[in-house]
Amino acid sequence: MSLTLSIIVTTYNRPDYLERVLAGYLGQSVFPDELLVADDGSGRETAERVERFRRVAPFPVSHVWQEDLGFRAAGIRNEAVKASTGDYIVFSDGDCIPHVRFVEDHVRLACAGWFVQGKRMLLGRGASPRIVPSGALRPAALWLKGELSGFHHLLRIPGLAIEQKSLRGIKTCNFGVFRKDLLAVNGFDEDFVGWGREDAEFAARLLASGVKRKDPPFSALVYHLWHEENSRERLAENDRLLQSSAASGKTMCRNGIRKVSPVGPGVEGGRAADRKLRQK
Fold first, then answer.
1. What is the fold of 5-278?
2. The predicted structure's pLDDT at residue 136
3. How far apart are CA 153 and CA 260, in angstroms?
4. Fewest CB atoms within 10 A around its CB: which of 82, 120, 154, 274?
5. Cross-strand pairs, 65
6. Which are the contacts of 75, defined by CB distance < 8 A and separation ≥ 6?
7. Tens of pLDDT along 62-82?
């Protein structure tokens, strides 16, 4: 069976970083079937750079934009999913330059009944402004200079992956999932606003639905450019939402790709909401 793969790159008002990330997809050993920029309300310069990239990319490129009403990564990812066409979706971020074999590795790792949590190497503050896309990036030299974390990721063993059963280390800067599994849990929960935990809560529902997690320690890599941290003012509330969702064992969210009215409190209410969503 031929697998079609969509890349979704989330961004917000960092066109300089986004331009370098997008350039990294021009040097891939295997191209994606499409790439969508999921834009959480950036200004005109981002749109212009996406359009320039669209003109030279050897694959379809879409710019999915929503109004800037604060950090709403869950919402813009859902919108990008609705605009995508691939059987398999890989989420990444506009500050993560892909390894030259990033797409190839995700195609190899895609397996029915599993989602993939990829790895990242962190680029230092001094190195990030001068880093170019992965074709010319020299990770070993950067590591020797103390400008790159995670030396063990430099070892390349394509296809090797380890099953993980926890939510530790869940990050949608490098996350692959089958469309049918994503839709079965109703995508990301848009009750999560502000930075943090919408990705872990999404993974918790995938696990509850029976989709297993695997992590490839030596392939499917991204290089994360340094930037100032986003505001954590909503993190405590997002932690509460994550803990509540994981404890309930629910597989569906009411405020995801599809919308459903709240149905009662607690676990039973969550199960009733699950049933109501599945009937839609």
1. Spore Coat Polysaccharide Biosynthesis Protein SpsA; Chain A (3.90.550)
2. 56
3. 42
4. 82
5. 39
6. 40, 66, 188, 190
7. 999 999 998 899 999 999 999
